[in-house]
Amino acid sequence: MNEERRQILQMLAENRITADEAERLLDAVGRELPEPGPGGAKARPKYLRVIMNSEEGDEGPSKINIRVPLRLLRAGVRLASLMPPVAITRANEELARAGVPIDLAELKPQQLEELVDALDELTFDLDDPRNTMRVFCE
């Protein structure tokens, strides 16, 4: 049994989640694709990377290098499906107030996987030779 399944069953045993919530989580974990072994297809990405280099600025050049584990993003999407509707509404209101127009009720795990797949082909044109940006999965 993998670690994620064990944790879900442990939460169920401790009454931290309901049987329905556990079932949804187990279904979501079961839909994840296994990573191919050596000699198989392309390995499943593990991180979302955002790298930006800028030659502009008061203090000289700057560099941003962000590396987010995709497991964290996947877990966040799955956990959003367990939030009560009142909490989702309130979170959406706060996100909108902060200028982030995301509806947590509409997030689906397959959408995240589609985004990860699309990042293989993503490029940015900043139209400025002094600034570069890359967003990709690795």
Topology:
Layout: H1 3-13, H2 19-31, E1 47-54, E2 62-69, H3 70-80, H4 85-97, H5 109-118, E3 131-137
Can you tell me about this structure?
This protein has 138 residues and is an alpha+beta fold. The protein has 2 domains: 1-31, no CATH class; 41-137, no CATH class. Helices cover 42% and strands 17% of the residues. It has 5 helices and 3 strands; from the N terminus they run ααββαααβ. It has helices at residues 3-13, 19-31, 70-80, 85-97, 109-118; strands spanning 47-54, 62-69, 131-137. Strands 2-1-3 form a 3-stranded antiparallel beta sheet. The longest helix has 13 residues, at 19-31. It is elongated. It starts with a helix and ends with a strand. 3% of the residues are buried. The model has no long low-confidence stretch (mean pLDDT 76).
Q: What brief labels describe this structure?
A:
alpha+beta; 5 helices; 3 strands; elongated
Give a quick rundown of the structure:
By secondary structure, the protein is of the alpha+beta class. The protein has helices at residues 3-13, 19-31, 70-80, 85-97, 109-118; strands spanning 47-54, 62-69, 131-137.
Q: Describe the main β-sheet briefly.
A: 3 strands, antiparallel
Give a count of the beta strands, DSSP E runs of length 2 or more: 3
The portion of residues assigned to helices is 40-55%
Radius of gyration, taken over Cα atoms and rounded to an integer in Å: 19 Å
Number of domains: 2
Distance between the termini: 26 Å
